[in-house]
Amino acid sequence: MSRRRIIAGNWKMNKTPSEAVELCATLKDLVKNDDVDVVYCVPAIDIVPVANAVKGTNVHVGAENFYIEDKGAFTGEISAPMLKDAGVEYIIIGHSERRDIFGENDILINQKVKKAFASGLKPILCCGESLALRKAGTYTEWIKRQIKWDLDGVSADEVKNLVIAYEPIWAIGTGETATADQAEEVCKMIRETIADMYDAATAEAVRIQYGGSMNAGNAAELLAKPDIDGGLIGGASLKPDFGQIVNA
Ligand code: 13P
Does an H or E element contain 233, and which? Predict the structure, then answer.
């Protein structure tokens, strides 16, 4: 098994352009690691200054959102060609905050995954259950269904280049992390789902991250699990701790 680890920060709606450049400078020496893909997924307005700030380093730039059309009358939106031209490589799709606060459903998320691949962007596809589903014990079926809907019509070759982030909603920004065993159980199940939908080689290639209150203290234990290939980090990606997670 030779999946390359991927540690991505999701800055969410934090950091003005000048603060973003400062954060890049703070993290610059802390995130050096040639064995890991390091990604900063940043607010749209920070993309250009961050892309400039990380030039010549090992850091890749990601975006947090985009729309499925290339251009036109879509007030307030940003397109894949715009992101590509600004130096973006990765794109977060299907984050629970976009699903729950902005009403994005699996039909749109599926369109976004297909559009990202067609445009040469690498999707980080998020999935995960609410606390109610976790308590009801039906989270496995829920996540399987999300994966099946979101990857409808996506080819095996594309999925080999996909990153899937398992983010239990009850662990996001709450300080309550899934235990390493809980996270591994779901990440393994996601890989088995990909094997069922595609084949063993595709399941072996797809990279699966855990996200939800990952921090400098718990990263090593989570990342030691066989089916956890990285992390999608919110709060701790805005602090020097992010360097410890990259090097965990
Ligand atoms: P926190 O790390 O702040 O819990 O956020 C996780 C997340 O939503 C990353 O996308």
Answer: strand 230-233
